[in-house]
Amino acid sequence: MALSIAEFNQGLLEYLQSSPTAFHAAEQMRLRLVDAGFILLRESDQWQLESGKSYVITRNDSSVIAFTYGQNSLIENGIKMLGAHTDSPCLKVKPQPELNHRGYSQLGVEVYGGALLAPWFDRDLSIAGRVTYQDKNGIASVLLDFKDPIAFIPSLAIHLDREANSNRSINSQKDIVPVLVQSEQTELNFKVLLKDLVTKNYPELKDVSLLDFEMSLYDTQAPAMVGLEKQFIASARLDNLLSCYVGLCSILQADNQNSALFIATDHEEVGSASCCGAKGPLLQQFLERLMPDAQNRARCIDRSLMISADNAHGVHPNFMDKHDENHGPILNKGPVIKINANQRYATTSDTSAVFRALCELENIPVQAFVARTDMGCGSTIGPIVSSEVGVKTVDVGVPTFAMHSIREIAGEKDAWYLYRAVQQFFSGKVNLHK
Q: What pLDDT is attached to residue 434?
């Protein structure tokens, strides 16, 4: 049974709160899937996949594939696929981050992805991520989250920067260095902080040797329904954990007749070129192990379709001229089909028609986005997966304000609309001609 809009949005808020990094986002999905009966596969093991069962794999702790192996023939019916990404623009802690200026202990950070930097000032920040250690059994990793607001990046007072509201630029090396503590006696040792948290959260690892880490800063303000009538969702990482949650809910409710696949990859915000990114071999290798025969696999892919789900730019009421006047998506008016003549999106008229038909089944409003011809256009995993795997693809997304900000805004209805459309997709209600 489909989730109500209230149930869906409450679950979305909880998922966002539990997922401060791509590692945590993937772990939350893995836990939910395994709890629902999906069989956890290890890529190093021999696989014997059986129709009627569901499986989940992870790579790099930050990318996930969930697959329901349907009873219907893969060759005759193909696979219904949904793709999203787990990463979001943020500030990542440098390998040797310790800085000390006038008794203020700070951390050197590196900008990950195309982050809007101004909203990071004057926020209550925490730090989360993955640490890697060595014990008697070898090298392994665990996830950490300080949870408490332990850092902040103070703005420079306007009295010291009189042009702050008219002509301010942000130097990513000097201006966004977080402050953690003030101490004249001792200097901060970040690895010691991490080791203390490992010992607190994993007492059995108190004697291990900490080797390295991948840690990011995030805003501790909780996700919330906002607006006079609570019509909007405000949160960090809506791009693209909102789509990840749509995929998670949809694959959990997929039937066992049709084969359905949900993939959430890391590193989209920096080009997807990694072993766990959409430009890497993760999906292709999974399909090769699912169907070792190349000819049968090609026949299956030809009958398959992917929905690439990644947030879209909602038309901003203060900057309406930034949109093509006929293609300005409105929040709470339905998911957006993204189209670009230069293939920055993978949508075709055929794949767009499938998504429109899915929305018609559920009486879901649908919108279209085309960037202004005189402005650049972003991209998604859609063209990457389509070109790497050969699967027909439609790029869609939920309209959003303030994309790549530390706090983004989406409509209360749109993610739920997209979830209902994907449910219909996984059930095989609409297909291209065979």
A: 64
DSSP 325-371: TT----TTS--EEE--TTSSS---HHHHHHHHHHHHHTT---EEE--
Sheet-wide strand order for 39-40: 39-40, 54-59, 63-68, 260-265, 80-85, 305-309, 392-397, 336-338, 367-369
Could you tell me the mean pLDDT of each successive run of 10 residues in the chain, 434 residues long?
Answer: 94 98 98 98 96 97 98 95 98 96 94 97 98 93 97 96 90 96 85 95 93 98 98 97 98 94 97 95 97 96 97 94 88 96 94 96 95 88 94 97 98 98 92 74
What contacts 410, CB < 8 A, 6 or more positions away?
A: 232, 233, 238, 242, 311, 314, 331, 398, 399, 400, 401
| Cα atoms found within 13 Å of the Cα of residue 243, Cβ hemisphere only | 29
Please state, in angstroms and rounded to a whole number, the distance separating the CA atoms of residues 300 and 258: 13
What is the structure's pLDDT at 377?
85
Long-range pairs for 294-298: beta carbons < 8 A, 24 or more residues apart: 296/74, 296/75, 298/390
Nearest Cα residue to 44 out of 63, 54, 23, 58: 58
Percent share of the chain, pLDDT over 90: 89
- Which of 190, 248, 227, 234 has the alpha carbon at shortest distance from 33? 248
- Measure the CA–CA gap between 384 and 278, rounded to whole angstroms: 7
Mean pLDDT score of the chain:
95
E strands, 269-330, in order: 305-309, 312-313
Distance between CA 380 and CA 362 in Å, rounded? Answer: 26
Give the contacts of 365 (CB within 8 A, at least 6 positions apart). 333, 334, 359, 417
The distance in angstroms from the start CA to the end CA of the chain is: 29
Per the CB < 8 A criterion, the answer to whether 284 and 80 are in contact is no
At residue 184, the pLDDT reads 75
Torsions phi, psi for 352 (to 5 deg) = -60, -40
| The pairing of beta strand 125-135 with beta strand 138-145 | antiparallel
pTM for the complete prediction? 0.96
pLDDT on residue 168: 87
* CATH numbers and ranges of domains, the chain: 5-88+236-426 (3.40.630.10), 90-219 (2.30.250.10)
Q: Is 320 helix (H, G, I), strand (E, B) or coil?
A: helix
